[in-house]
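G., before I forget:
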Amino acid sequence: MDFEVTPTSHTLAAYRARGGYQALEKALRELKPAEVTQTVMDSGLQGRGGAAFPAGRKWQGINLDDGLPHYLIANADEGEPGTFKDRWVLENTPHTLLESMLLASYALGVRHSFIYIRGEYDHPWRRLAAAVEEAYAAGYFGASILGSGFSSDLFVFRGAGAYVCGEASSLLGSIEGTRAYPRNRPPRMTVRGLYQLPTIVNNVETLSNIAWIMRNGPQAFREIGTPKSPGTRLISISGHVVRPGVYEVELGYPWGKFVHEDCGGVAGGRAVKAVIPGGISSQILTGKAAGIMTANDPDGLLLAHEALAAIGSSMGSGGMILIAEGTCMVRLLQIMLRFYHHESCGQCTPCRDGMGWMHRVIDRIVNGQGRPEDIETLYQISRANDGTTICGLGDAAGYAATAILDNFRDEFEYFIEHKRSMHEGRLECL
Amino acid sequence: MRHLIPEFDRLKARLPPGHDATLLVPCLNRIQEDRGFIAEQDIAGLVEYLGVPRIQIDEVLSFYGMMRRKPIGRWHLECCRNVSCSMRGSERLLEQLAGRLGIKPGETTEDGRYTLSTVECLGSCGTAPVLMVNGIHHENLDPAAVDALLEGLD
């Protein structure tokens, strides 16, 4: 994403001026579809939506010789609380996504692709829709693109307010005109996806790397980042931080340096109490565990998928939330559990009932009617959800709850015993 | 919805043929934008136009948070209450709105001018707190900015 954001940097002219669509022209002229997939495979690109699954391996699940229609969907249903990095791509460089989707469509034999964008994203949708019309007018979509004989159409599909649609199999239902219920695997979506046909669903940021990789080669991509996590990541940071926003960070970058030098540290100069690394469904860490108490914390972790996985958390969706000393973790968990309850789609019993139950328990604690056994009840519901539902929503709620209870159990015990918060229920930073 | 059918027909050009039900959510979104809610005749019209059973449309309407079966106020104020916004003052923002309008979240003022709602994360965490007014995000709000915003609504 090596360009400066200006009032026109999202346009086709500006994108072309920075080398845009050259990789597509070259690929259509010189490369076979399988060579594009091989390049993505060689780059080591991992998914940027949350699971960090190798993108090339996902693509290899598509059989180019099966004679069936294949579909490609860009997941722009960015709803994970704390995450706003795909919005940055859509608003500032939508053509990066479009060129990358064309390269992916060529590689995967896709005649019709979709961008599934959440219904609440009005401005990003306007920017994206305008970019799609520019690209159609320039001959980058439609029949025989740039005279190559390869044809591909793109439909921008706006959601209608459902967090669960960010789950890849769930948005298939939305596009098919039904409720967006997540689907069991197997069969994998590369075997039976949209309309029961082979389908690839990739996150916006994952796809947006493809144009750069095709232009500069997989080796250049591997030279950035760590051996296991090549490339960069867009991190959207918010909460009690001096300079919130979207930052592009080379994987392997020191986390403490990022928080304190690049983002200005905690507002009001307070200490870091905790950090949510990548969306509220990634496990919270104390400032000490993450090693981000100062810019040069000797215990400092690096921002890389393997480094966070090693301590039981994850870079998730890249939605980082910084939490200052003095924040009430009981109220923070209340907000999270209310959210998961609101967004459970209701398909699986452990989640449908469990989310409501957890929400009632945490509300009871915050209302001063908590019972000593409530902490254990929250653990029990979390365990009952783990692995027993079709998608990860209920699991995530349980991971979020147990990580907060593990690290801040004293605050819950205090709240239940004294019927009030240890920190006056504070959520804002002083 | 019948006046929108030429528009819907044009959408089909970029979709794979034979999957008209794919247009259900886009059609409902467009109808709601046009009328403000989904009326009985819209559902009947879509059953006919898309060949989708009525029960499927009812299920979709009751699933997605943004879909409405009834009209709401002229100005729809949707206040994010998720983590990052709460950490940047959205609870005070919601109290200010409720106090000024004299309604609770989920209600509409008697004159039909304002509906107040709470919503989950809108992706404005870095520019929190956020209020969405008729679908447009207003970010980095403080009490004075909220007052100015309300003054500006006709």
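The beta strands of chain B are 75-80, 114-119, 131-133, 136-138. Chain B has a mean pLDDT of 97.

More on Monday.
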